[in-house]
């Protein structure tokens, strides 16, 4: 399944690259400090391939490894991407059902997950995903002990916790995609209401990537102007119900996409690539991602992963931003954490 050796097209496997290119005089070996970036994507379904495609088009890696249990589909996806080589930045693409293909990865992105069976409980589905992660995470940790794990599979917060436990990695090197995409949807809806560019809107959804997520209305700003403070000073009335409806639209948006096209893929592909860029290029940007949240904003009762605005760089999670929360927002965040802890306790972990 691996990519065939380059240059061996001549008779008897002659390495044509040695004939085609004539070396110049007084050369030296490449500098040992030259960084070779490798990303592995686990799971080549709609989400995994959207992430892989976005990584390639954004030139984020020198090498991309794909892993999936379905060998034929996996090889087909690898070949399909390789055939686009003339249109993309040069990236070595490999694929295998064997996790050894991921060796030496800087970043491992896990998208694999069990699909829900009609009538199946959420808890039973989660247990099957935990069983799947027991087969995925240990070999990733074995072959790339210094890598960063990014979990995209849902339910992302609990599975990020599971990945942390199974990998034995320090907490800064295990993150979940969390509410990074939810926050993008949030920014889009606010920008749409105000008719501005979404990049000029700073707004976060935190907590669980799911129904108990929390919209941080108190810290929203547009072009540096705090929105709610501005409205109060201008004595412009707004209804809390309007704000809640925007948050509800964020929560429901993934369900709408799924009901229309059967799955989500492109937005999460861009979201994951956005996180990969911040990590591998040490951008030190702030993203709402799922991190070990114990001790923040009064969250206690056990180890739990949920989304908080976090600074990301080459070391993974560099820190959590000290965003001011109103008491109501902090209480909702603690309730979100409690919801996740209850799910973990039901799993017996």
Automatic annotation (TrEMBL):
Reaction(s) catalysed by this chain's protein: (S)-lactate + NAD(+) = pyruvate + NADH + H(+)
Q: Which residues form the Lactate/malate dehydrogenase N-terminal domain?
A: 37-176
Show the coiled coil region(s).
none
Task: Please tell me whether the keyword Cell wall biogenesis/degradation is annotated for this protein.
Answer: no
**Domain of life of the source:** Eukaryota
- EC number(s) stated in the UniProt entry for this protein: 1.1.1.27
Q: In which pathway does it act?
A: Fermentation; pyruvate fermentation to lactate; (S)-lactate from pyruvate: step 1/1
Residue ranges constituting the Lactate/malate dehydrogenase C-terminal domain according to the UniProt record:
179-342
Q: What is this protein called?
A: L-lactate dehydrogenase
The family annotation for this protein states: Belongs to the LDH/MDH superfamily. LDH family.
PANTHER family in alphabetical order: L-2-HYDROXYCARBOXYLATE DEHYDROGENASE (NAD(P)(+)), L-LACTATE DEHYDROGENASE
Keywords, ordered alphabetically: NAD, Oxidoreductase
Q: Which Pfam families match?
A: Ldh_1_C, Ldh_1_N
